[in-house]
Amino acid sequence: MRYPFWRLGVFLAACVAPVLWLYQAWIFALGPDPGKVLVDRLGLGTLILLLITLAMTPLQRLTGWPGWIVVRRQLGLWCFAYVFMHMSAYAVFVLGLDWSQLGVELVKRPYIIVGALAFLCLLALAVTSNRYSQRRLGARWKKLHRLIYVILALGLLHMFWIVRADLKEWSLYAVIGVVLLSLRIPMIAGRIPRLIGKKNKLAGKAEIRG
Amino acid sequence: MLIKIPSTSDCKESDVTPESFYLSRRALLGGSLAGLAAGAMPRWASAADASLYPDVEAGKAPSWFAEKLPGTKWQAVNVKGEAITPYKDATHYNNFYEFGTDKGDPAQNAGSLKTEPWSVVIDGEVGKPGRYALEDFMKPYQLEERIYRLRCVEAWSMVIPWIGFPISELLKQVEPTSKAKYIRFETLQDPKSMPGQRSGFALIDWPYVEGLRLDEAMNPLAILAVGMYGRELPNQNGAPLRLIVPWKYGFKSVKSIVRISLVSEQPKTTWQSIAANEYGFYANVNPTVDHPRWTQARERRLPSGLFSPNVRPTEMFNGYGEEVASLYTGMDLRKDY
């Protein structure tokens, strides 16, 4: 396995946050309504992880460092883990495990429909994230995993519908999302310069010569 | 190994009232006694009133407030069998978007609000319009403690001991003309001290405006508050003067009021202007009319623990139906939500 410490570091960083939040909620450090705070943080965490995952390919192109791609699958799976915790927290702390109410919410609330749709898409990607599925699906695998672009759009819409008074934070995520998606457009993707990789090697040689 | 199978009638750990609630029942009792005692004492002797409630931070009360406080009618209105929300929660979990949209933002940012000197403009359809310094504005009124449930449109709730006076008393002073049909309230607009008003992405058209029908404002339950928990209002709770209408969702109870107008037309209120399908002018607490984004049938009474959620059914008019239902006879509350 390449870059074991880098992988482990990413793993720890991603799992530390929810553990810390849970502990804070436990000791009432999240205020009088900790369930709601947990739901919100896990949701926002999912969106941020989604953006980080989508940044790996452009970063690899930009720097030439293969480490970015090495953790891409792990980050994608963390997105799923966060959204799963987000939904579980919603079911327990907001719905109070009242499943009949879930039916009502799913039918009536557009932002919950959109969120549930994004969850199902992420589930499909998580289930097919293994090598076996990659081999099995062949060329279709790549097509299927382009669903992540749709998931990002759904996630941003989900958040947009929840924001009620100030769009500053949402706009920040939306702009980053649009930039990351536009880097996928072939015309733009082809022009991403290699900033560090090759140039550094040349610079290194120059130094030795100098 | 001993395996204990609880019978269905056993109490679960989560059913047990938290100790802090149990203890606050004494504070309440003690509070009422202290109130009686304070009433019987000469004015100078009751400076310790601020400690009626546990864990209340001492504030810097303006002198007009300190002078009026000893004469307060304690527990003029109370709630039966419900624990008062801890002071820390009532002051650190707030919606006051002028200071930021997170629940903790107001407590963090409202220190910049300058509440002294403060003046209130009375205008519109009144016999006695004018701009009054708050200490003059407050002169005619005796303070009363009103312990009310507070139900937020976001489906959480608290129980808070306010200190204030009925709006009907104010209306007696300002003499509304026959054209006055509604009362309109306006919050301070001061981007320098209110960071939320500086945001270029805000969806709210400042200043914050709320209103009531005149007969609603005349209802004895509707008050203007200047204090809570035996002290003056903390900034994040809407100092120095705010509205409290306990049978309506919390967003109706506008904070840090600088202008009160009597008007003939229904005022354009802030949330109604942003999303009329989500927030009506009346905004009466009503478990049968859902907010489009969530159900209003239940509420989380705060503090609501992670593994012992304090969820309860929401009552019509927040439990004040007996006092206010008659205001709305003949109206379709599904349409006029």
Mean pLDDT of chain B: 87
Main sheet makeup of chain B: 8 strands, mixed
**Helical segment count of chain A:** 12
> In terms of per-residue confidence, which ranges of chain B show pLDDT below 50 for 5 or more consecutive residues?
33-50
Average pLDDT confidence of chain A is 88
Number of helices of chain B: 9
Stated plainly, the CATH topology of chain B is called Sulfite Oxidase, Chain A, domain 2
> First CA to last CA of chain A: what distance?
37 Å
Helix/strand/pairing class of chain A, anyone?
Answer: mainly alpha
Give a count of the beta strands of chain B, DSSP E runs of length 2 or more: 13
- The amount of helix of chain A comes to over 70%
Q: β content of chain B, as a range?
A: 15-25%
The major beta sheet of chain A can be summarized as: none
The class by helix and strand makeup of chain B works out as alpha+beta
Number of domains of chain A: 1
**Broad shape of chain B:** globular
**Rg of chain B from C-alpha positions?**
21 Å
Query: Which percent bin holds the helix content of chain B?
Result: 10-25%
